[in-house]
Amino acid sequence: MIHYAKGYWGLPLFLRLHGSPFPRTLPFAVVSVAITIWLHLWDSGREEIVRSFAHPYPFQMYGFVIGFLVVLRTNHSLARFMEARTGVETMGSKWADAVAMLTAFDGCTVGSRSQEIGKPAMKQDHEHHNDHARFIARLTHLVSLLHAIALQHLRGDEELGNIVPARTRRQTNTTAGPELKRVRDRKEPKESAVEIADGPEDEGISGYLGTRAIKTNGKEETKLLAARYNHMGAHLIHAVTDDGRQARKNLVNPFLLREDQDLWLRCCAATPLAVIGGLDPHEFEELAELDCDRAYLVLAWIQALIIRRYEDLDGIRVGPPILSRVHQTLTNGMLGFNMADKIAKTPFPMPYAQMLSVCLVVFNLTMPIMVAGHINNLWLAILVNFISTVAYQGLNEVARELEDPFKPTHINDHGMPQLQAMFNSKVRAASPSVKKILTHWAQCDSWEVAKE
Known about the structure:
It contains 13 helices and seven strands. The protein is mostly helical. The protein has one domain. Helix 1 runs parallel beside helix 10 (350-374), helix 3 packs antiparallel against helix 9 and helix 4 runs antiparallel to helix 12 (416-430). The longest helix is centred in the first third of the chain and has 51 residues, at 57-107. Residues 111-115, 119-128, 171-212, 222-245 and 446-452 have low confidence and may be disordered.
């Protein structure tokens, strides 16, 4: 995702090249303008055009139909883009809810079971047990892994090496570069960083900073990758490298929308996904046996972990109907994943895209003829022809990019590292220690007593 400032009436966007559809319209505009110039300089040919086309009404009808088709495709592409985002958000929200519920169920209901008739009431023991900490740590890791595997599936990435360890909870409030240090010195809202790169810890830098090898134009370079999440607003989420630019910027050609396999693999490697706790060798081996639908395997691990914890004598102490809500929430998250996967697997209909592409090429070739026959001034003819071609072709390029919101070769995709970083933040917030939860309630109880 590209987040941009909306000040100064949008005028700064005029000069923005990164992620813009305008560069891809220039080849069509150049050809169309060249035809206009040639027809204006060819006097006899221009006179023949004037005699042949007494009125531009037939071309106006054709231009109206093309404009309608372009706008319709753009609307459908935007709907696909937003529907895909809704599916991903539903997926992450439900899985984070499951973590919050299990944290409460397992940490705040300990002691003897109270469901059986004749048994004494539940004995509350609010000490922070090591078993609970291990269970929550394993749960958060698997849920984070589930989300990352799901995002990998949506973007068509099968390389498990693109899953890297996230920075630990203790490191989330440290600075991640000189720009954050300046923010802290000005006493402005602080940013917390979620590391998405692997590599050793550098003692000379405040915070954990990692590196990753990326091949750019055949050369292997070491890039510093980080996804920073500003808690004051999601509009400030962005992926940065050591030179302040997005990792894919040098990989994608702004004048051509390509989707070849080599570029696809390099873009996926340039945007790794952070998982809380990383990926251990056993999990890597199990996941490597599958080349698709790995999310269901991780979901099975989570379901088995919950059941084993429930069967443990010191485990979850809620009734089966209540615990079933956790499984239902996990299933609802999978429904959101499959709704997003529907967009990823179902391309925009080829006949529509083919017909519109052909009609636009015809429009770009016939537009100079009509302009040359009805506009006498050469520079005005060039301007009108250029604007018309860029407008029609630009909207079509916008539709072509938005209709595939998960493809890593598209700069304007949903931004998988940012989505994963936001989800890790949700999971960590939803799984605080039991000691912190009980301390909060103790403070609330003392406040109620003081108020009475």
